[in-house]
User: What shape does this take?
Amino acid sequence: MIVRPQLPALRAGLALAIALAAVLLASPRDALAQPSPTSSAQAPSVAPHIQGPTQNGYAQPVTISPGPGAEVVDAYAQRDVRAYRAPLALWYGVALGVTWLPVLASSDCRGYGCLNLFAGPMLRFGFAFAPPIVHWRRGRVGRGFLSLGGQIAAVAIGASIGSAVDSAPPCRASSLDGTGCPAELAPFVGWLIADVVWAATDVVLTPDTIDLTPQRPATAVRFMPGFSASNNRWLLTLQGELG
Assistant: This one.
């Protein structure tokens, strides 16, 4: 059966579709998770029609009883919409905090006490995997490895630039146990700036939520057999409609 859409009806349908999409996007997760109600209306039957010597008739629509796969199909009605940007920003904040708060607390060190500056960077090796895990758990494997690579690049680029712009002369080995050898903070400052820039970039480019609802395996087909009889021939037809 061929349907010829009219322009006013097409515009009205498009407006309704846009409105429905806006409502779904603005709905909370619990509302999105509710399955759509199933319609109990059945297709009307077509009565046989007799015209002259030819008799045309159509059988009732074929009703397929739900089989063992019905529960699997119903599972696709449950929307799996997860928060994406907020968990990523949270774990970046934790990683930045455990890295740079110890550095800030030890920034006024002298001599061998400046080794405490490395307590934060040592913890960072473990927490650097937290943002990539957020990406990986949401099916974004490439984004996860990009997040890990961006943090490694922040260490290399930031510390290198900080060391290059540092004009303070290096301390002698004999002065490390004295009070006249301050910490070389320029590499840490350069790393901090690059670290914050990458974390902000990754969070901003991440959508607020992500829909992980699995796709339906196939499109249902509704079909209706019919027949046409005349004086000298019989014709069996099958009309289908994608649902």
Observations:
- The CA atoms of residues 80 and 213 lie 5 Å apart.
- The mean pLDDT is 74.
- The beta strands are 49-51, 54-58, 81-83, 209-211, 221-229, 234-242.
- The chain has eight helices and six strands.
